[in-house]
Amino acid sequence: MIVSFMVVCLLGIFFKPAVIRTDHNTRLAAFFRWQSGQIRFVNSVTERPVTIRFNIGRRFHGFSFFTDETTEAYYTHGLYDMNETVVEESTDHLSFCSVKGISLEIGFYTIEVKDGCLEVALLWTL
Fold first, then answer.
1. Is 35 left (phi over 0), alpha (psi -120 to 50) or beta?
2. Which of 14, 74, 120, 124 is 20–30 Å from 8 (CA)?
3. Dihedral (C-alpha) 118, 116, 72, 66: value to the nearest 10 degrees?
4. Is the separation of the CB atoms in 21 and 119 below 8 Å?
């Protein structure tokens, strides 16, 4: 019993189990805490590409946002710097929808969705 508990704790230190959902598929995934990811899509209003990068730790964190000034102003209404705001964020759930398509690269996985939604949820955040 104690050995099983220790194994689970050690796995929790290194591995982050997750569920990846699209409109047509659900799969289990495992990430290492030191891995990273990125989501790429085209903003349907400005027609410009957007890339959001992040790290995996206890939660998804260390976000950075890459796009042109017009698209950033679309999201922020020109009131704040997007990267200064998102770098402090952390979450255990990512959710995106796009008509034009989404590409997610996270850990060892690459998932592409066109005209649909994509969610990644960490199963525990120890």
1. beta
2. 120
3. 50
4. yes
